[in-house]
Design brief:
The chain is mostly helical and 169 residues long. The chain folds into 2 domains: 37 residues; 113 residues, Four Helix Bundle (Hemerythrin (Met), subunit A). Helix 3 crosses helix 4. The longest helix is centred in the middle third of the chain and has 34 residues. The radius of gyration is 27 Å and the shape is flat. 5% of the residues are buried.
């Protein structure tokens, strides 16, 4: 008992360390699971609403321009969905080569070329869509529209997210 009376500071330090460890355990395991639930990807409707608000507020689109944008976007995604399905199938076929014995280089090249062609088709359609969206803007809105589209294309290419590498984003 005299040991505890003589080392009150030591006991306070140990108690503080226990509390800090418990807090870190909570933050590291329990709190992280709650945050994961919140990180669900936005739905197409959510993305559409955000984009419309940005076009209205940041670029200065009118209601008529927003309606035209909605029509362009709907047509774009309707025609893009099957292309993404084809790309997924091409990638699946490519990766299934892993389970075949003695896969030739020509089979690998052929399967990867199908992926490239599908991705090329998607990229071309995306560019055409952005050109159409850009043409909705008036001459006065073009600089703001260009800035808006540049942010989107950076995000799509992976340059608008994540940690910086070598001082670059």
């Amino acid at each position: 008992m005299t040991y505890f009376k003589n080392n009150k500071v030591l006991l306070l330090v140990i108690a503080a360390l226990i509390l800090v460890n418990l807090g870190l355990l909570y933050y590291g395991f329990i709190d992280r699971d709650e945050k994961r639930v919140l990180r669900t990807p936005p739905s197409r409707t959510d993305m559409l609403n955000r984009t419309k608000e940005k076009l209205r507020n940041d670029v200065g689109f009118s209601d008529d321009q927003i309606k035209q944008y909605e029509q362009l976007r709907a047509a774009h995604f309707d025609s893009l969905d099957p292309k993404f399905e084809e790309l997924g199938k091409a990638k699946e076929n490519f990766l299934n080569l892993l389970y075949q014995s003695n896969v030739s280089d020509s089979a690998i090249n052929e399967a990867s070329e199908k992926i490239c062609m599908q991705q090329r088709s998607i990229d071309e359609q995306m560019l055409r869509h952005f050109i159409s969206v850009r043409q909705l803007a008036t001459v006065d809105q073009r600089p703001k529209m260009d800035s808006f589209l540049q942010k989107i294309t950076k995000r799509m290419s992976g340059r608008g997210h994540g940690p910086k590498q070598n001082g670059k984003n």
